[in-house]
């Protein structure tokens, strides 16, 4: 199975955190198939985590990459470096990057090209604000974000999209599972019709996913998996969500 459940640890972690997380995760995860799982720790812990995972082949990835390959860009990390560390994916265009670090569609588009160049699966995040949701313009906003990110990136052949309503991230609020399902259907239609060369591997939902709502989300046909922030910081909760996912989606 392709990547379906991604833990986004954001700016959290330490060597001690990593050890505790791994031991809790393996205590509660009840399968030996790790193929759908990914962890995006802070990039400087990728190697440490790889050592702790040993032969347990959970895919590791980055939360962000730079739009350039190398050069005078203090503090940045390139797709080639992430690849060099053995990663399989990178998140691109997370709403926190768009808002806090002013990432434009043009930068996001360049990052997608970099990811593709080094065979990292890009997880492109898109999502509407609370105001846009209330104004009932979610579909238009997402359409614009998809076109903005992908129009310069036709070399991108393999892609995962994460639909993350900005107002749902870390808030405990979510759209209804049915609403999310219909948004995901629209995303699949737009990508397939506008970018037929792109292989859209899956559309994940992100925003306050927890063990409480996981089953109701995964029961929806077009919700292929989840990008999980807060709840992924606890190895036990991430394992429990993965167990629910396996029960519903892996036949
Ligand atoms: C995220 O930031 O990608 C996210 C989904 O966060 P949370 O699960 O905490 O809402």
Automatic annotation (TrEMBL):
Catalytic reactions of this protein: D-glyceraldehyde 3-phosphate = dihydroxyacetone phosphate
One Pfam family matching this protein: TIM
GO cellular component annotations of the record: cytosol
InterPro entries to which the protein is assigned, alphabetical: Aldolase_TIM, TIM_sf, TrioseP_Isoase_bac/euk, Triosephosphate_isomerase, Triosephosphate_isomerase_AS
Residues annotated to bind substrate: 8-10, 170, 208, 229-230
Keyword Isomerase in annotation: yes
GO terms of biological process kind: gluconeogenesis; glyceraldehyde-3-phosphate biosynthetic process; glycerol catabolic process; glycolytic process
Keyword Disulfide bond in record: no
UniProt xrefs under SUPFAM superfamilies: Triosephosphate isomerase (TIM)
Catalytic center residues: 94 (electrophile), 164 (proton acceptor)
Main location: cytoplasm
Top-level EC class as recorded in UniProt: isomerase
Pathway involvement of the protein, from the record: Carbohydrate degradation; glycolysis; D-glyceraldehyde 3-phosphate from glycerone phosphate: step 1/1; Carbohydrate biosynthesis; gluconeogenesis; Carbohydrate metabolism; erythritol degradation
GO molecular function term, any single one: triose-phosphate isomerase activity
Keywords, ordered alphabetically: Cytoplasm, Gluconeogenesis, Glycolysis, Isomerase
Subcellular location: Cytoplasm
E.C. number(s) listed in UniProt: 5.3.1.1
Protein's job: Involved in the gluconeogenesis. Catalyzes stereospecifically the conversion of dihydroxyacetone phosphate (DHAP) to D-glyceraldehyde-3-phosphate (G3P).
Subunit structure: Homodimer.
Cited NCBIfam families: tim (TIGR00419)
Assigned protein family: Belongs to the triosephosphate isomerase family.
Xref: HAMAP family: TIM_B (MF_00147_B)
Name the record gives this protein: Triosephosphate isomerase
